[in-house]
Amino acid sequence: MSQLQDKIKKIAESMHSDIVQIRRHLHQNPELSYEEVETGKFVAERLTEYGIEHQHGIADNGVVGLIKGKNPNKKILALRADMDALPILEANDVPYKSKNEGVMHACGHDAHTSSLLGTAHILNQVKDQFEGTIKLIFQPAEERFPGGASIMIKEGVLKNPAPTGIIGQHVHPPLEVGKIGLKPGMYMASADELFMTVKGRGGHGALPQDCIDPVVITAHIITALQQISSRKSNPTIPTVVTFGKVIAQGATNIIPNEVYLEGTFRTMNEEWRAEAHIQMKKMAEMMAESMGGTCDFFIKKGYPFLINDEAMTHKVRQHAEAYMGAENVVDLPIRMTAEDFSYYSHEVPGVFYRLGTGNVAKGITSPVHTTTFDIDEDALRLSTGLMAWMAVCELAG
């Protein structure tokens, strides 16, 4: 295997500049969730150029490729990258700045897609040295409910052939380039969207006794709902309730008729998730009623929690340490952010790891989902070869 690892590293190094150019092309031409028409075409064209069998059009813009080694039915492993961008106006002054104003690859999906293309190119060149099949999943619409992963699964992406495991990666600015991070077991939270309208009776701000003040009712509801995480949940189950949007169209001396809110609920247990939905709705409605108002409470159920298969994560860590050194593979904490890779993790054993893309010396420190997000493109030198190595090791194991 050492000779194969050396070959993978050599190919990854030789194609690094090409993968950087692919990443920059994608960064300049971002497309929002469910709109990745040109991105899907671009990926399909690259796979054709590499001589890789593929199908374009799953979940509209998704692309699925197959790389068959010797004895292709022995074991099937899936590798996944997402392709969509975010509705953010880029503030970076770089040659590859987004040409699509108001749309930006601020979450690194351009890096994920270009990296998987590089991995695919490597694996296709060494396919005579492994047994089994690699399924490449280039997925649209990770950033918006219901999530492209759920749609691709419904359309059969985990069938014909059916993978026995799946690996995905995500850029991580807090982690220096040259490192990756892993967390076995529970890793990322489920994510539900909360929509609430609190109704009362408006009037003059100086005469609250003549009104049913929905602003005051809303304040009580927001505070009370924090009991869901602080008093109602099992302390071993991470839980977050946050309201980030509150609209009360009154004025300094006007009490409005209603208040509109949007928020998020996140946790890591499906039974508790379902129970919390009931409790939140009941608590908000009863509190509003007790104060003379009403509350319309709607929950849009989103992604499930993401779980990294413990045994597979342990093996992937060993593969990574063999490729890049144990000192460059770090432990990660639980995150209350969400990812639709979680859908795959509930269907087959999966590993979702973080790729270090930050570089303090170069000033590359901005978090994801910000106007100045960027990556140290040296990360693409590691990411392509590392995932290829993980894949051949998993097939061998």
Q: Give me the CATH superfamily of the largest domain.
A: Zn peptidases
Low-pLDDT residue intervals, each spanning 5 or more residues: none
The helix content, as a percent range, equals 25-40%
- How many structural domains can be distinguished in the coordinates? 2
Structural class assignment: alpha/beta
Number of alpha- plus pi-helical segments: 11
Give the amount of beta strand, in percent.
25-35%
Global mean pLDDT: 98
Return the CATH class of the largest domain.
Alpha Beta
Number of strands: 16
Largest beta-sheet characterization: 8 strands, mixed
Task: Describe this entry's structure for a reader.
By secondary structure, the chain is of the alpha/beta class. The protein has 2 domains: 2-188 and 304-396, Aminopeptidase; 192-300, Alpha-Beta Plaits (2-Layer Sandwich). The chain is built from 11 helices and 16 strands. The protein has helices spanning 2-14, 16-28, 37-50, 109-125, 148-154, 214-225, 227-232, 270-290, 310-324, 341-345, 379-396, and strands spanning 53-58, 62-68, 76-82, 133-139, 165-176, 180-182, 185-188, 192-199, 203-204, 239-248, 254-255, 258-267, 294-300, 306-308, 329-331, 350-358. It has an 8-stranded mixed beta sheet, sandwiched between helices. A 4-stranded antiparallel beta sheet has the order 10-12-8-13. Strand 3, helix 4 and strand 4 form a beta-alpha-beta unit. Helix 1 (2-14) runs antiparallel to helix 11, helix 2 packs antiparallel against helix 4 (109-125) and helix 6 packs antiparallel against helix 8. The longest helix has 21 residues, at 270-290. The protein is elongated and about 80 Å long. The two termini are 12 Å apart.
